[in-house]
Amino acid sequence: MAVHEYWGEVEQDWAGFSSDISFSHPFFEEQNISVFLGEEFDDEGEEIDEPPTENQLADFAKTYQDFLAAIEANLSAIQHQAFDYYKKHYAHYFEDPEKSGEPALHIDTVEKHNEYIKELLHLRISKGGTITISIRYKLDTEHGIEFKFVNGRIEKVGGIADT
């Protein structure tokens, strides 16, 4: 494959195709996180072995650059949506010593919740202006938490591979 003007050399990686371009932000514990380009599996569940086309890579570059241009707003959206997700799906358990068998965590603000969403696993850019962000959620390491952005807005929040 030819070298792309933004992504450089695109190669098969452990979860699809990626390049030397990675993601970093001081909010997250790890830096230089993998950015995957395109889906990992096709509609039949088979691993995709054809690299993204030049046009797809150009679309992915625009999607990623737009995401980075609004990174602080996007990070704020992630933090607020993650806290809302916690309140809806987990607070009833972690805030009730009778259910959890542990003292309540007292997670009652976005800021208190942020410490549980700092382990970024990877980003995946796919067609239609979509970026999925997978995080190892310290309150549910089995399922994690994933954010699906479409055209710069969070469309869905769920467990990893549920969005």
Report the helical percentage.
25-40%
Spatial strand order of the main sheet: 1-2-3-4-5-6-7
Structural class: alpha+beta
Ends distance: 30 Å
Notes on the structure:
The structure is a single chain. With 163 residues, this protein is an alpha+beta fold. Helix content is 29%, strand content 26%. The chain has a seven-stranded mixed sheet with strand order 1-2-3-4-5-6-7, covered by helices on one side. A hairpin with a 3-residue loop joins β4 and β5. The longest helix has 19 residues. The radius of gyration is 17 Å and the shape is elongated. The two termini are 30 Å apart. The model has no long low-confidence stretch (mean pLDDT 94).
Brief write-up:
The protein has 163 residues and is of the alpha+beta class. The chain has five helices and seven strands. The chain is 29% helix and 26% strand.
